[in-house]
Design a protein that fits this description.
Its EC number is 2.1.1.182. By secondary structure, the chain is an alpha/beta fold. Helices cover about 35% and strands about 20% of the residues. The strands form two sheets. Strands 4-3-2-5-6-9-7 form a seven-stranded mixed beta sheet, sandwiched between helices.
Length: about 260
């Protein structure tokens, strides 16, 4: 029996087998992989991932969906369900508690909280091998946007400083029940190796990126006035008259380091 989607959870259940198969093929799970699915819903993606990997951990907030998931998974593989809000799950501790170096994440993320979930995953990127997520197409475009794009912004910079972002394919509304009012897309995120990560204080990077894009129509000299003066921006080899959307992610790292060097 199909579950009734709940608006409060932003539920749109994927049901089109063609797109389910494409997601599984893109992820290519193997026995022994520690696969974690965020928001399994009715299990459309859960079961083929479970069959391929042999075991799977699902994080599900909706209590009503859990019995159905357990029943459908019987005989397919070893399914572990964590009843929790994913934003409150320590992904690093989850990997450590199971004695695995890194997790493989998948999920059709609730669109209304997709950005917080992405930032939460990035915070635990050291414990993650890769991520394959279904998101609103517009969000995926923002994630992968290059400097100068109209949709390039805070999400683009913060994700690209931590991961390689690879849009894979689009998914139409009719692939879901009920159909959302927007197109969707699947994206692959691969955390950068340690030697490619920046060495600026994370809190400074967050502060600079947030301030810069918080007033994106202003020049950096004006937008960053509370954290950097024009001379410090120049010392970071950035034009104080430039605007945030023209800067590459690496430019924000240099600005963050300049911010750290300012006197209190």
């Amino acid at each position: 029996m199909n579950a009734r989607p709940k608006k409060s959870f932003g539920q749109h259940f994927l049901h089109d087998r063609r797109y389910i198969d494409r997601i599984v093929a893109a992820m290519a799970p193997r026995p022994g992989d520690f696969v974690v699915e965020i928001g399994p819903g009715e299990g459309a993606l859960t079961l083929p991932l479970l069959a391929a990997a042999g075991s799977l951990t699902a994080i599900e907030l909706d209590t009503d969906l859990i019995p159905g998931l357990q029943a459908r998974a019987a005989g397919v593989g070893e399914l572990h369900i964590i009843h929790a809000d994913v934003l409150k799950v320590d992904l690093g501790a989850l990997a450590h508690s199971h004695g695995v170096p890194r997790l493989r994440l998948a999920g059709n993320l609730p669109y209304y909280i997709s950005s917080p979930i992405l930032f939460h995953c990035v915070e635990h990127a050291a414990a993650i091998q890769d991520m394959h997520f279904m998101l609103q197409k517009e969000v995926v475009e923002r994630m992968a946007a290059a400097p100068g794009s109209k949709v390039y912004g805070r999400l683009s910079v913060m994700l690209q400083l931590a991961c390689r972002v690879e849009p894979l394919f689009d998914v139409p509304p009719e692939a879901f029940r009920p159909p959302p009012k927007v197109d969707s897309a699947v994206v692959r995120l691969v955390p950068l190796p340690a030697h490619e990560l920046h060495d600026a204080p994370p809190e400074q990077v967050h502060a600079v990126v947030k301030a810069a894009f918080g007033q994106r129509r202003k020049t950096l000299a004006n937008a960053l006035r509370q954290v950097l003066d024009a001379d410090a921006i120049r010392r970071a080899d950035v034009d104080p008259k430039a605007r945030a959307e023209t800067l590459a992610p690496a430019d924000f790292v240099r600005l963050a380091k300049a911010c750290r060097n300012l006197p209190p």
